[in-house]
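Entry, Tuesday afternoon. Goal for today is a structural model of the target with adenosine-5'-triphosphate bound, before we commit to ordering more compound. Inputs were pasted exactly as handed over by J.K., no edits. I checked the ligand SMILES twice against the vendor sheet because last time a stereocentre got dropped in transcription.
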Amino acid sequence: MSDSAVPVVELHDAYIMQDVNTVLQKITFTLEKGEFAYLVGRTGSGKSSLLKTLYADLPLGGGVGTVAGFPLQKLSSGKVPYLRRKLGIIFQDFQLLFDRTVAENLIFVLKATGWSGKARIQNRLSEVLMRVGLANSASKMPHQLSGGEQQRVVIARALLNEPLLLLADEPTGNLDPEVAADIMRLFVEINNAGTAVLMATHNYQIIRQYPKRVLKCENGQLIDSTQVSFKLTE
Ligand SMILES: Nc1ncnc2c1ncn2[C@@H]1O[C@H](COP(=O)(O)OP(=O)(O)OP(=O)(O)O)[C@@H](O)[C@H]1O
């Protein structure tokens, strides 16, 4: 099988755990290269725990899982940074460093992930800022940007290493509806360019506006809109 045919995420009978507590059990799903899926479910149903398991912040409790070619059930801590370099991770609370400029925020990540050479770094910086529509904001401090612009910087940061997969946890959570729709359009653009996206959200308006595959955490299970039809309610 060629690399491009290998799914980005493959879970089989996987257990998602918080300590000794099982959050989701026997979940099986595949996310193909370049696919987009929403992850929904009530508060506390396990969306964040599932995303954390996919980026190896939580250990896989049982079953088998592969993300970007890395087997989760036998991932040593030394391999975790290599897995994370294949992923773009976006949280609801922006987690920008507020004591430095947009450019410095991005350069910090580039250097931490092994980039060197002033010109290479500068080029990559310009590329990602252009991509998220912030070409003129490199020298601004985060507090000089709106919430939506800050979220764009977070997305630019997640794109630095050309991830195979974007994992986003409530990326539109704190934004007003128009700004949320702008951010969603940006995700769609990124996805159209070939990056797979798994996006946890409570924003059903966005899902109705941009209908795509939906995975729902419910009663400890994961249900998949491509296999079972269900209503978009919490
Ligand atoms: N750090 C933690 N330690 C122990 N239990 C946790 C921790 N974080 C979450 N949990 C528990 O795990 C379960 C799943 O929580 P999780 O945060 O994955 O849900 P969620 O669907 O993402 O919720 P929300 O929509 O509110 O973000 C809940 O019962 C929660 O209380």
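Residues 34-57+76-215 form a domain with the Rossmann fold fold (CATH 3.40.50.300).
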